Amino acid sequence: MSCIQVKNLKKSFIDRRRAGRGGERASLGNEILVLDNINLEFAEGELVCILGPSGCGKSTLLRMVAGFDFPTTGEVLINDEPVTGSRSDSIFVFQHSGLLPWMTVWENVELGVRHIQDPEKTQTIQEYIAMVELDRFEHHYPHQLSGGMLRRAELARALAVNPNTLIMDEPFSGLDFLTHMKVREEVVNMHEFIQKTTLVVTHDIDDALIMGDRVIVMSGRPSQVKLDVKLPYGRPRDVLKTPELMALRDEIFFMLGVSYVV
Ligand SMILES: Nc1ncnc2c1ncn2[C@@H]1O[C@H](COP(=O)(O)OP(=O)(O)OP(=O)(O)O)[C@@H](O)[C@H]1O
Ligand SMILES: [Mg+2]
Question: Which ligand is nearest to the CA of 223?
Fold first, then answer.
C-alpha cells in the first residue's frame, strides 16, 4: 500500500547568481520561492499526470517525493512516514537512459531484482521483456536499441522491480510522434498490470487526458495547484469524442496561457 501526502509544502532555492560571491551574502532577497504551499494526496494505485509551465517546480516536486531533495517547510509522507531519503526498493524513478551501457537488456532488467531469490525469476524477467515487446532483443546492449526501445526496456526494469510508486518525469520527451504514442500505450498497459501509484510529469495535455486517473495543473512560479481533477473515464479513451474531456482540454490550454487550440 502506498498513499503519498504532500502537506503545506514550500520549496525555495537560493539564487546563487544573485547571491554574493560564494553565496556568503545570500539573504532572503535572493531566495526564489518555487513551490508555494502545495497540498496533495495521491491514493494507492492512482495514475496522476502533472502539468505546468516550464520552471514551475514539477521536477522539484517529484524529486521530493522520491526523497532526492527535501521541502523548505512542510513535509512529504508516504504511508504516514516522512520521506527521509531515497528508497529504491519502493520507489522507481523512470529515467531516459537508466540502463547500464555495458549490460544487455536482460542483465539490466535482472539488476533490479538480483537480490530476490525466486526459482521462477528467469521466466518472470523474460515475460516482462516480452510484455514491452523486446523479446528477441534481450541480449542486445543499450547502444544497439532505438530511443523507443530504450524507454520500453526501462519499463521492463520497472515491472521487474514492481515498486509501490513509479515516478516518471517527462517519460516521452525526445521521442517522435508515433513512438511517443506507442510508449505511452505501454505505460498505460503497465499501470493496468501493476496497479501502483504512478506520477507522470508531462508537457503534453493530451498525454494527461488520455492516461490520467487524475490531472493536476500547477501555476507558474511561485507555483500552486491550479487545477486538480479526477478523470472518471475508462482506458483506452478517445479524448476527441468525449465532450467533457475536450472542454477540460480547452480549459487547461487556457490555464497554461494558450488561447487558440486546434
Ligand atoms: N538545485 C537547485 N538549485 C537552485 N535552483 C533550482 C534547483 N533545482 C531547481 N531549481 C529551480 O527551481 C525552479 C523549478 O525547477 P524544476 O526543474 O522543478 O522545474 P520544472 O517545472 O520541472 O521545469 P521543466 O518543465 O522545464 O522541466 C527553476 O527555477 C529552477 O531553476
Ligand atoms: Mg522538469
Answer: 1
Domain segments of the chain as ranges: 1-84+212-262
- Look up the pTM and report it: 0.92
Ligand number with the minimum distance to the CA of 204: 1
76, β-bridge pairs: 6
Best of 60, 96, 173, 203 to mutate for ligand 1, by most ligand atoms within 8 A of CB?
60
pLDDT tens digit string along 132-164? 999 999 999 999 999 999 999 999 999 998 899
Strands (E), 15-110: 31-42, 47-51, 73-78, 81-82, 91-94
Rounded Cα distance between 27 and 11, Å, is 16
Alpha carbon distance, N-terminus to C-terminus of the chain: 41
> How far, in Å, from the CA of 57 to the mean position of ligand 2?
7
CATH of domain 1-84+212-262: 3.40.50
